[in-house]
Amino acid sequence: MKFDRLIQNLLPHDENFYKLFEQASNNIVQAVAVLKELAITQEASGRDKLIMQIKELEHHGDSITHQIFSELNATFVTPFDREDIHELASALDDILDHMDGTASRASLYKLTEFPESVIRLIDVLQLSIGELDRGVGMLRDINKKNELQRVFQKVNDYENVADDVFDNAVAELFDKEKDAIRIIKIKEILVGLETATDKCEDAANVLEGIYIKNA
Predict the structure, then answer these.
(1) Which of 25, 38, 125, 182 has the smallest count of CB within 10 Å of its CB?
(2) Could you give the number of structural domains in the chain?
(3) From the first residue on, what is the mean pLDDT of each consecutive set of 10 residues in the chain (215 residues)?
(4) Of 188, 196, 197, nearest to 170 (Cα)?
(5) Taking the model in full, what pTM does it have?
């Protein structure tokens, strides 16, 4: 197995994967910034525009994912294992899908304001995505052991924080909100955001697997 890895490392391989993963990661960074803006904006026209921006970023993310898969099918020697390339692309795509789904539900449910807990959860998600973006950027230099380990640890920590924020937010929602329909709407928004942080951890786990195999 080690000999196969050595041969793979010596052979020329397609550098486009690094570029495509960096594009996918940067696209997610942009999307969570727009999502944060959506949560705090007060203008209806502004909300519609921001939801459309997230949808466009989601479509762009899909395009990048398809490019990665096409590159995978057309490339003989890849910089790391094919299954890891596929899993990482899918994990990054999942993060964006859940953010887009959250924004779409906000539009469908005609939500005009969000409780502070939603904004707190988006803040945690944004921090997690920022770390993940750093980790993806280090794929080109997988030997940055200490930096990569900090990324994995921070994403894991943020996922735990998100769990706590989610649990407290749901408890507060049931305790203080009297409108049953609004409870359902806000809870679904919280679930979408918390799931997005779970997907960040999934992507970080794939990155960690790549590091372990290639370090």
Answers:
(1) 182
(2) 1
(3) 44 72 97 96 85 96 96 84 93 97 93 91 98 92 82 95 96 93 95 97 94 81
(4) 188
(5) 0.90
